[in-house]
Design a protein that fits this description.
Layout lengths: L5 H13 L1 H7 L3 H6 L5 H15 L3 E4 L2 E12 L4 E10 L2 E4 L5 E4 L2 E13 L2 E8 L5
Antiparallel strand pairs: 1-4, 2-3, 3-6, 4-5, 6-7
Helix pairs in contact: 2-4
């Protein structure tokens, strides 16, 4: 992930997706927000959902992400843009509200998640992410 290469792009996309359950469990968005660009609406939406959940003293448990397959392409355009495709499986999770109520969240398999990544002087940044679902 430290180098600009297709392998680095795939590693960055994989790492970012595996942050998903962590940010919901802990509310710690520092790395998530550092890696995303302003253009990533999926990333901003997740940040907002995490902030709302944790503002009410909520959290989640479970939801681990397993990478079933990964591939990618690039660089594209005039620079350091890559496209990463991941097939993932997400374990079920439980969202716990601040009042203690619990909501079971079904996991599932998500093929062909597309992640647009950019290599900058500060490392990898996520420009966009399409899950193909309403997640």
């Amino acid at each position: 992930m430290d180098e600009e290469s297709l392998e680095g792009a795939v590693a960055a996309g994989t790492y970012f997706m595996q942050l998903y359950p962590y940010v919901f469990a802990t509310g710690d968005l520092s790395v998530w927000d550092e890696m995303r660009t302003e253009e990533c609406s999926f990333c901003a939406d997740i940040s907002s959902k995490v902030e709302t959940l944790h503002a009410d003293d909520g959290s989640t448990t479970g939801g681990e992400i397993a990478i079933l397959n990964s591939s990618g392409g690039g660089p594209y355009g005039e620079g350091h843009h890559y496209l990463v495709q991941l097939d993932i499986s997400e374990e079920p999770s439980v969202r716990i509200s601040g009042d203690g109520s619990r909501e079971e969240v079904v996991g599932g398999d998500y093929p062909e998640i597309l992640i647009s990544v950019l290599y900058t002087s500060d490392g990898w940044r996520i420009e966009g992410l399409n899950t193909g679902s309403d997640q």
